[in-house]
Amino acid sequence: MSPKISLTRYLVEQQRMDGHIPSQLRLLLEVVARACKSISQAVNKGALGGVLGTADSENVQGEVQKKLDIIANEVLIEANEWGGHLAAMASEEMDAIYVVPNRYPQGEYLLLFDPLDGSSNIDVNVSIGTIFSVLKMPEDDRGVDEGDFLQPGRQQVAAGYCVYGPQTTLVLTVGDGVAMFTLDREQGSFVLTEENVRIPQDTKEFAINMSNMRHWDEPVKRYIDECLQGKEGPREKDFNMRWIASMVADVHRILTRGGVFLYPWDKREPGKPGKLRLMYEANPMSWLIEQAGGAATNGKQRILDIQPGKLHERVSVILGSKNEVERVTRYHNEAERAGL
Ligand code: P6P
After folding, report:
1. Which three-class secondary structure state does DSSP give residue 6?
2. So what's the pLDDT on residue 1?
3. What pLDDT, on the 0 to 100 scale, is given for residue 46?
4. How far is the centre of ligand 1, averaged over its atoms, from the C-alpha of 118 (Å)?
5. I want to staple 316 with a disulfide (CB 3.0 to 4.6 A). Which of 231, 251, 262, 274 is the partner?
6. Given ligand 1 and candidates 68, 246, 285, which is best to mutate, with the most ligand atoms within 8 Å of its CB?
7. Is CATH 3.40.190.80 correct for 205-337?
8. Mean pLDDT across the stretch 46-74?
9. Ligand 1: nearest atom to the Cα of 276
10. Residue 141's pLDDT is what?
């Protein structure tokens, strides 16, 4: 029986081996992991912890906040503000950035997170998760402001999520592949259960909210229609569909067995490029997917190359098995050339 490798040992060995993880970044990742353990415990209590249901507030997205959204956000802020590794934080649940208070030392990293993604699933006991992204402060000596966060996703130095499902699993990349750590509740620590995760280039499984079909653009309609035609159609194979309405759970399935996830632009709110947020949902998930050999675009360009204009901006997301993402992207480019 090979020895269990804890998250701490994995990070120390990564740091020692190739300097991929400076000590301040290692500290940051361990603090985020500890915060995810606390969130997992709160989520697991459910009704027994009085944490279900909605709070009397809305977030910057205009969405009614769940009690656990606010709890998870507070856990991440309180866990990370004192360590000296961060200059500031940004969250889906907060309008403005959170600058580390003067009573604590400021560090060189910026932490962004969706503290509890998929929260519409909380009250129905379906998997949800925390998504996080780490950037470095730009090299200059002025104070931190929102503009420091507006870096393309390719600038991330770490990204990951923690899925609160039948297991609590932390999935992480620092640019050297993707590793998965399952929470050993008896030991209270995350244990390495998968490393060098690879996504199959092809798939027979797509994830999209089919109820929006009449609102989609032509390229997405074409792609999904061909999948639905199965063996008799141009794809010459049958497809399966999954939609958990929790990005963390859908992405975890894709990292585990392949697939393609689509949340495209649609006509319901034509002024918005998509539903999902670029900085703390699409960017971290896209880096994880690319690090596992997959691809991630907004239909037109690589998500990690998008230059953000606003902290909470949204984006269309097509990510997963490389050949499928390239096909959907090709359909978008063909439609654009045809003036559709
Ligand atoms: P819909 C959850 O609210 C979320 O941001 C993602 O986790 C998920 O993929 C998507 O929205 C689900 O959206 O419109 O199907 O409810």
Report:
1. strand
2. 59
3. 83
4. 6
5. 274
6. 246
7. yes
8. 82
9. 5
10. 65
